[in-house]
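Notebook, bench 3.
Goal today: get a predicted structure for FAD-dependent oxidoreductase from Aliarcobacter cibarius so we can plan the truncation constructs. The sequence was checked against the plasmid map this morning, with no discrepancies at the termini. Length recorded as 390 residues. Pasting the sequence as submitted so the record is complete.
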Amino acid sequence: MKKYDFIIIGAGISGCSLAYFLSLYSKNILLIDKNSDVAYGASGAAGAFLSPLLGIDNKFKTLVSNALNFSMNFYRNNFPNFLNDCGTVRIPKNITDEEKFQSYIPFMDFEFEKKDDGYFFPIGSTIKPYEICKALTNDIEKVFDYEVKSIKQLKENWQINEDYFASKLFLCTGSNIELIEEDYFDIRAVWGQKIDVLSSSKIDCNYHKECSLSQSIEINGKQKISIGATHNRFTSDMSDTSYNLNLKNINNLVHDEKTIKIINEDIEKLLNKAKDIKKIENVEVVDIKIGARASSIDYFPMVGSLVDSKNSFLKYPHIKNGTHIKNENLEIIPNLYTLNGVGGRGFVLGPYLANLLTNLVVKNEKLPEEIENFRLFSRWAKKLNNKGKN
């Protein structure tokens, strides 16, 4: 049974970014995924648009702005061939949206100017999702088509199935959190769809209104444009469709009728929204991808160590009475970490958060408290207390 310094489960943008930054400190790394290649889940279905978050100053906006600055510099300096640094026009949806934009101007973190029916942000870009994930993990040992059925703590190490040992284990599994046996760790799957089309219409930069529209790229005399993304939160049982978190390689499957119906409805929605942004003629859909983005209950990412709720309750039984315990005094699960909940901004947040998590693990540098998993435990414990009172 081979032992590694670091094992990462999940080869989307989060796991691939983490592999890159950890590899600066160790070459004894293994990246595992149930799919046949990197970026075969939500990351492969992403439009990978990189653009600012608009709004008044708050912690989430600051997080996204810091991440966008970091990740843009990271991509430009290390992988410029995969970055389309063309700028994005943000178009208000209606008068109310225009009024909101005007109210946000005093809080803008990035340069912009008036263009067309909206506002042009030079920093707005796209990154090639598969190519960047591939490049990030170019020198990393990988195992694909591998299903992790169990992770087991053995003293300070972790055993993956009966095959591998890890000194430190990282879970970057997106919407599927079956390996995390902690009830406070809550993720919602938001299914998105991206389509690539060929058109006779040329688009000179990225646009965003009710969907995102990429700058066109000429291919054999036609213009290739990416359009994304939809937001489906399924409340009914979808286990008999391709919208099933336990499936692998979902975009290589022959879809059932129920899935095809949803896909076709979403294609129509995306095309209508795109044509509301720019005139797109002679459209031919040439690629369709679906994937489940992982969104936390408060929209912030979920990064770092996991609280061991059982042992924390044993050590501090008064937590259940609503007593607050300092994060550093809670029991944590040793050498187990997450990088999850990046939602629809994975290619903005991924490299930034991976660097922060690497610095925590290697240099013991503290994470910003708003992205730590401790916050989820504290809220969950408080809710348990309130339920007990009722």
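The chain has two domains: 2-48+128-186+297-389, 189-295. The longest helix spans residues 257-277.
Flagging this for group meeting.
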